[in-house]
Write a structure and sequence with these properties.
With 198 residues, the chain is mainly alpha-helical. The protein is built from five helices and two strands; from the N terminus they run ααααββα. β1 and β2 form a beta hairpin.
Length: 198
Amino acid sequence: MSDPSRKPSGVLAATLLILFSVVLFIVLAWSSHASLRGVDAATDARSRSRTGLLLAAEVMSALKDIETGQRGYVLTGDEHYLGPYERGMRSLDKSFEALRSTLAGQPEARLETLWPLIDRRVALAERNIADRRNLPEEDSRWKQRLDEGRDTMDRIRERFAASRRCCAPRSRCAIAACRNCGRARCSSTFCCRQSVAR
């Protein structure tokens, strides 16, 4: 005959085992979800950095077009050289605003110090073109501003180099799932079993 006192302890053990399994499942599901959120955040940050680098290149390209066009026109007086200048002027504001919104959360990009330099460079180009149109070739005010424009452009290039360093990946590691535990981790770190084994 079966012992009636043993029956409730078997049911209790089975209930505890099921409860433990449910709690373990919930903990593992939460951990997996947190790891996936971390991977998503890292992916978003890399995407913003890449986009920032591309937009910085667009702004720099527009500035080079402005500089090239105005320099060609000032040196030759030929309106044909203003084509790159006009294309650069059309794309500069839009590209810089896109860059500003992309890097809004990264104060180390120092975009607030970059725009005054860009604005100064554009103003110099505009004045050089206007002076070349209105002043005889013997007047050298626009020639002096060519040097000032070059110096300003060099400072802009330096600031963009700092912005590129800001947007570059901070480490050479890759986010990957641990083969042993499944958690997201940097490939340069040890996973749970490797750290225990050592």
